[in-house]
Amino acid sequence: MTGPIRVTGPLLDVMEVFLQAFRDDAQLHGWAIAKATKRSGPTVYGVLDRLEDAAWIAGQWEDQHPESNKPRRRLYRLTPTGLTAARDLLAARRPQALHHKPEHHRVWPEPGLAFVGWLRTLLPGGAR
Amino acid sequence: MTTWQIVLGIIIGLITGLVVSECCDVSPWVARKLVRWSARRRYVPPTHAELRAEELAAYIDDCPGRLFKLIIALGFAAAASVVTRKVAPTVAPLDPLWQPTTLTVPVHYEEGGEWREDRRRPKAHVVHQSWCQLTDEVCKAAKEVGVGSRSWRRCVKELRRITGDERWMLVAKNLELLEEINDSSAKIRRAKYMEGTGAPGSRDYIVHYWSFPTSSTIMRYQAAVETARAEIRRLTSDFLLSSVPR
Predict the structure, then answer these.
(1) Residues of A in contact with B55 (CB under 8 A)
(2) ipTM here
(3) Model pTM?
(4) Do A1 and B242 touch (CB under 8 A)?
(5) Distance (Å, rounded) from C-alpha B203 to C-alpha B188?
(6) Which among A47, A107, A124, B203 has most CB atoms closer than 10 A?
(7) Looking at CA atoms only, how far is residue A40 from chain B in angstroms?
(8) pLDDT truncated to tens, each residue of chain A (128 aa)?
């Protein structure tokens, strides 16, 4: 089902995260999206509903470990339609998102090794 | 500070600690229940709601901290209390080639006893009741898509216009047929009334006999009404599921 989709700030954030995940060949689950976008769960799921209805993203259940009694996560990825739409949308609304990795989407080192990056900056000509 | 005050303070401290600890232990369980409830409230097709409930339970499971899980779940519950969303299922609910049934109801009447104004005609009443249920169904369907009218013709016309679904025309034809049977069932009284043997104006002119639909006719009529109602519900739900608000 495709059609006009209401473009909002959270939607752009989520699209940005999805585009990044596509580049990294990764699939995202709800909590990862909420964490990356720094948006609340209901907001993120509202956006996911809209994107799924528009067939911009497709979800699939993760393979559950037979011994695990945890609920299954649902993993999402961009569809070809969604990829084109995300690129077009971000090119129009947030061109910088297509060229630069957003600050809040950067994968930071583990807290215990954070000082290594700082030490590297102290080395001659050292950049992170 | 006296000794008993110190002891009381220790006891209160211990009890408070136990209560807080217990609450913290229970809060993930409460949070899971809460998000499942939120999903069921927020998502209308129950199958979709169950899937989302499991997904949200996994979301809560991913959240760090016991009390944080509960806070997040409260957020979902608050959102669900203000937003109810109809989500299209992953599979099409209807076969697009599906067509409503063309109803046929053979009608037979049988003669009753002498007509009296105060005599009730339960069989004709049953037909009329079934017809009323059908018109109520049409009005309900129209109301669901935002049309408020008590006329079934207008409701069907608007349903066809709003949904753009030509199958409503077939439903309208079935409704015409069932309305005709209901009307004729009610008019038998008048037809018999005019068949009085006395001279016009005399008391003999009053009807002598009355007719009513046979039991098999009533059963066929009720079955036809149920079929028409089911088809109206099917067409309406198909439209509502396919017109997801964005």
Answers:
(1) 30, 71-74
(2) 0.71
(3) 0.48
(4) yes
(5) 20
(6) A47
(7) 8
(8) 445 677 788 888 888 888 888 888 888 888 889 888 888 888 888 888 888 888 888 888 887 655 577 788 888 888 888 888 888 888 887 777 776 554 544 444 445 555 555 666 666 655 44
